[in-house]
């Protein structure tokens, strides 16, 4: 029978482990693979050119991130070791550029207070997003598997999300809602309630996460290093909440659609969200 894990359970878990084990800390490295399917409305683009664009983007959308954490706090930031800058690809006169949102971004979480702060750059402007952490109604399935040296347990969550679609030919930005299953594999052997991106709230570190077009896997972990782990926290940027930032992002996408409408070189639809 599946069990729902709620915020107060995670908070109680964190408190009890803090009292009995002290301040566990560490640094975990994650490999992130993002799958983006390009939807193109240019009939002149050959199947070979489309496949070339898709393969270029697949390689460039492989990212590496670092999660620094102690019992209550965590920071999530990209390591610029695989690909720097936004993903892009070229085939003939066709050029594609996808902004994944990870460039220069820093996410800070405090799971005891249930708050988050995040730096995100949009069209050259830096924002500081301050909001409550999302509450995930995780369901524990009882399934287990081995990831590295750790025995992990499976949890799932059904998430309502939006997908924004724009094109050089469209007159407006369209938004489609969809339900996505988030799958997490966590290990109670590392008793902190942290995970990649904004995910958290399970009785153990999330070692692997699969959500729609993203696969995130922990490739290396260092626990209780000799030097104190310095959890990073964003300080600069225009302060907004998540709803306000999403509204600004939608406006900028619409401006981009209007700017490139009717230009030569092929018309491309880019899907963002998830």
Give structural notes.
This is GLPGLI family protein. InterPro entries: GLPGLI. It contains three helices and 17 strands. The protein is α+β, with helices and mostly antiparallel strands. The chain has one domain (3-273). It has a 15-stranded mixed sheet that branches. The longest helix has 19 residues, at 242-260.
Task: Tell me the layout of helices and strands.
Elements: E1 3-5, H1 7-21, E2 26-34, E3 39-40, H2 47-60, E4 62-69, E5 73-78, E6 87-91, E7 94-98, E8 106-110, E9 115-122, E10 125-132, E11 138-147, E12 150-167, E13 174-187, E14 205-211, E15 214-223, E16 238-240, H3 242-260, E17 268-273
Parallel strand pairs: 10-16
Antiparallel strand pairs: 1-11, 2-4, 2-15, 3-17, 4-5, 5-8, 6-7, 8-9, 9-10, 11-12, 12-13, 12-17, 13-14, 14-15
Pfam family, one: Porph_ging
Protein name: GLPGLI family protein
InterPro entries: GLPGLI
Short description:
This is GLPGLI family protein. The chain is of the alpha+beta class. It is 18% helix and 46% strand.
Element string (H = helix, E = strand): EHEEHEEEEEEEEEEEEEHE
If you average the pLDDT, what whole number results? 78
Strand content: over 45%
- Low-confidence segments, ≥5 residues, pLDDT <50? 1-12, 14-21, 85-89, 264-274
Q: How many domains in all? A: 1
Instruction: Please report the distance between the alpha carbons of the first and last residues.
Output: 28 Å
What general outline do the C-alpha atoms trace? globular
InterPro entries: GLPGLI
Pfam family, one: Porph_ging
Protein name: GLPGLI family protein
């Amino acid at each position: 029978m599946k069990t729902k894990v709620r915020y107060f359970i995670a908070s109680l878990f964190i408190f009890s482990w803090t009292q009995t084990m002290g301040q566990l800390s560490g640094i975990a490295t994650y490999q992130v693979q993002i799958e983006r399917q390009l939807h193109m409305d240019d009939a002149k683009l050959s199947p070979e050119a489309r496949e070339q664009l898709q393969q270029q983007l697949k390689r460039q959308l492989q990212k590496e991130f670092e999660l620094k954490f102690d019992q209550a706090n965590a920071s999530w930031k990209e390591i610029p070791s695989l690909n720097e800058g936004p993903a892009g690809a070229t085939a003939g006169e066709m050029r594609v550029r996808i902004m994944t949102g990870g460039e220069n971004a820093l996410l800070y979480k405090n799971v005891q207070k249930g708050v988050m702060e995040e730096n995100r750059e949009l069209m050259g402007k830096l924002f500081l997003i301050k909001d409550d952490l999302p509450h995930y109604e995780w369901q524990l399935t009882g399934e287990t598997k081995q990831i590295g040296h750790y025995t992990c347990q499976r949890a799932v969550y059904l998430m309502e999300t939006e997908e924004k679609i724009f094109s050089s030919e469209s007159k407006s930005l369209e938004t489609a809602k969809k339900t996505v299953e988030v799958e997490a594999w966590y290990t109670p052997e590392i008793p902190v309630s942290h995970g990649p991106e904004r995910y958290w709230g399970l009785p153990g570190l999330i070692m692997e996460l699969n959500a729609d077009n993203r696969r995130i896997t922990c490739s290396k972990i260092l626990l209780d290093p000799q030097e104190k782990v310095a959890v990073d926290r964003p300080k600069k940027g225009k302060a907004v909440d998540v709803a306000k930032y999403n509204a600004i992002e939608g406006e900028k996408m619409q401006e981009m659609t209007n700017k490139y409408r009717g230009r030569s070189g092929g018309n491309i639809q880019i899907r963002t969200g998830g």
